[in-house]
Amino acid sequence: MTNMVPKRDTDPIEGRIRAMCERVKGIQQSDFYYYNIPISKPNGTATVLVDGREMSMFASYSYLGLIGHPRIDAAARKAIDDFGTGTHGVRTLAGTLTLHTEMEATIAEFKGTEDAVTFTSGYVTNLTAISSLVGRHDCVFSDKLNHASIVDGCLMSGSKFFRFRHNDMDDLAARLKEAPSQAAKLVICDAVFSMDGDIIDLPRVVELCKANDAWLMIDEAHSLGVLGETGRGIEEYFNLEGAIDIKMGTLSKTIPSVGGYIAGSADLIKFLRHQSRAYIFSAALPPAQAAAAMESFRVILDEPWRVKQLRENTKLFINGLKERGFDTMKTETAIVPLLCGTDEKAFEMTRECHKRDLFVLPVISPAVPVGLARLRTTVTASHEPEQIERALDIFEQVGKEVGVL
Q1: Is 194 in the active site?
Q2: In this predicted model, what pLDDT tens digit does every residue of 234-260 receive, in sequence order?
Q3: Which single residue of 22, 113, 349, 388 could bond 263 by disulfide (Cβ 3.0 to 4.6 Å)?
Q4: Given 194, 223, 276, 382, which residue is catalytic?
Q5: How far is CA 176 from CA 16, 131, 171, 227, 332, in A?
Q6: Which is the catalytic residue, given 185, 247, 253, 354?
């Protein structure tokens, strides 16, 4: 029994809550609700257990298959033995563990920068970095398909907010010309776009930033371990090492831990350590997570076959879907949108795939535009070619059954 005071029927907050609950209820009643599915311990990284059923996982962010890696797990256990399960509080006032400084030095070395700083999540990293660096007299420029954390960081900063058409460098050039000449300018883009899987035109972005005296920040949440010969990311992919001023990444996708980082010049990182609210007012990453993240970067370099295998699996998966008639949009990476059209078709595809022990999830409006609902499928280095071929056959069978093909 609760003591909450009933809200009037016209209360706007109550109305929003009720509308969302009704939408979820309708999806559940239609047997289309597949979000927040409890998963028990994975049997390897390419399969998961759902209600005791082994399912092929094609929705994982573990692009290099590092979840459960023995070296990474051992590093996490050792960190608990050495440091315990938590920290003493915020690093500025309660002290920084030697483990944190070692982890950040490892990240900086991997990304080819002077220093790095970590935060408690990728979302928070974008939010605090952007809002710390620019303010109401400045201008920020964001690709229209950038992650929500980037958008929220831009809005939180109070800067004049310019959004340019997706990967349209002519439009970015036009927006940059609209900015007052005296204003500080910050251009922000995803390296790999999380819903479409395509890659930002980094060479052109770099050129425009140089021509307009703009800082460049790139979110590498989905490119770390994915792009580049050794998985170092988009600069390595385009052979433009050192071209990005502010390198952001997460520690919860390719890196099987939690948190986010900013890598850059020593002065930039010093500024964030003394200006970022998320650093000053949030407790440090737990020791086990810091150690796991640090060891993961080392594993990527020590096991280069993983990056190569991911490239081969990505090519096999995308080409297989295209050959079967699916629209995968402009993806070039391990994020592969399987376009379904309507929300209902995406739900139907999901339901029938799950019946066949294939774990995928739908992305519907408003997360994507109306009419562009999709299965946001992913492929990893852990998938065997036979698993990929089986998944392709299931997609084709289901696509024909529900009318996507």
Answers
A1: yes
A2: 999 999 999 999 999 999 999 999 999
A3: 113
A4: 194
A5: 37, 19, 9, 28, 28
A6: 253
Domain with CATH 3.90.1150.10 in the chain: 31-60+304-402
pLDDT above 50 for 175: yes
Residues 6+ apart with CB under 8 A from 330: 196, 197, 198
Share of the chain above pLDDT 70, in %: 97
Nearest to 272 by CA among 110, 111, 127: 127
Mark whether 56 is an active-site residue.
no
Is the pLDDT at 1 greater than 50? The verdict is: no
Q: What is the mean pLDDT of residues 3-10?
A: 63
> Residue written as tokens 């992913």?
378
Per the CB < 8 A criterion, the answer to whether 218 and 129 are in contact is no
What digits encode the pLDDT tens for the residues 67-102?
999 999 999 999 999 999 999 899 999 989 999 999
**Phi, psi (rounded to 5 degrees) for 250:** -110, 160
In the chain, which segments carry CATH 3.40.640.10?
A: 70-302
Asked whether 202 and 191 are in contact (CB, 8 A), the reply is yes
Q: Which of 100, 160, 185, 222 is catalytic?
A: 222
Domain 31-60+304-402: assigned CATH number: 3.90.1150.10
